[in-house]
Design goal:
Number of strands: 7
Helix content: under 10%
Radius of gyration: 13 Å
Oligomer: single chain
Distance between the termini: 13 Å
Strand order of the largest sheet: 1-2-7-4
Structural class: mainly beta
Largest sheet: 4 strands, antiparallel
Shape: globular
Length: 107
């Protein structure tokens, strides 16, 4: 079984303005390339670009996203997904409401 190395335990980044306006999106301090939590601030957004800590030797097979709270509606859940995945970043896209948190897992 091949194991995909996702850059060790280094934290990915979200650049200012890459997750809505200003510093709207951040990552929980325990987040690493393979898994973590995206914290959306006070502004809703339609896209959030997360950059891996390093360019990976290959693109992950997939990344999944799930809401971190049960208050997310079925309609919102069905409209939020990872739409772009490369060896350097992924994009969370959709109707991403303000003050929501999203868990991601790349493998």
């Amino acid at each position: 079984i091949a194991v995909l190395e996702l850059g060790g335990q280094l934290q990915p980044t979200i650049a200012s303005g890459a997750c809505g306006s200003g510093t709207n999106g951040t990552l929980a301090t325990s987040s690493v390339n393979q898994a973590g939590k995206i914290v959306i601030g006070g502004n809703a957004t339609t896209g959030c670009n997360v950059n891996f800590s390093t360019t990976l030797t290959q693109t992950p097979v997939a990344c999944t996203v799930t809401p971190a709270a049960a208050l997310v509606t079925t309609i919102q859940l069905s409209s939020v997904a990872i739409t772009t995945l490369t060896n350097s970043a992924f994009v969370l896209s959709g109707n991403i409401l303000a003050n929501t948190n999203w868990y991601y897992h790349c493998f």
